[in-house]
């Protein structure tokens, strides 16, 4: 009986030692000193906010503006190109600047045609709600509008002196994707929010634009 008990104890000790060795040993092929199952705390943390590190965006927009109110009595729709530059402060927020030239279709009243062209110089920002550089965004701009009136009739064409007014834009847009950065934007433009002469009314326009951005 004593031999059986001694054998059982020895066999049990051998099994316990073998089990402990198997649990602490690294898997086959692992380098010595490397734990078999590292915890998540040992692994490097991964963060992915969709930002590729590119801060600068250069692009162009084609803007179509329909004048409203009193401005609609003096000119037809405006259309023209704008050069756009942007800098991404944080992944979702971009500060922007745009400059361009807006041609105008004539507004005919009797035998007189009139139009108003504009040179916009705008600075602003836009914020992306869905992901950096793509999806839905809202934007606002302030800046200068250099406005020139043109009148023709009876074989005579006259252009007025250019007037500079301080204006603002608010709007929203959608960038299709980071791989296809086509930008569709709608905006409300206030041409002469500040700097109006006595009796001068506020000129408004509703615009729709399309653009493309190159990320640097």
From TrEMBL:
Region forming the signal peptide: 1-22
* Domain Outer membrane protein beta-barrel residue range list: 15-214
Q: Name one Pfam family in it.
A: OMP_b-brl
Question: What highest taxon heads this organism's lineage?
Answer: Bacteria
Spans annotated as Disordered: 32-52
Alphabetical list of InterPro entries matching this protein = Beta-barrel_OMP, OMP/PagP_B-barrel
Recite the UniProt keywords alphabetically: Signal
SUPFAM superfamilies of this UniProt entry?
Answer: OMPA-like
The name this protein carries in UniProt is Outer membrane protein beta-barrel domain-containing protein
Q: Which organism is it from?
A: Labilithrix luteola
Print the organism lineage. Bacteria, Pseudomonadati, Myxococcota, Polyangia, Polyangiales
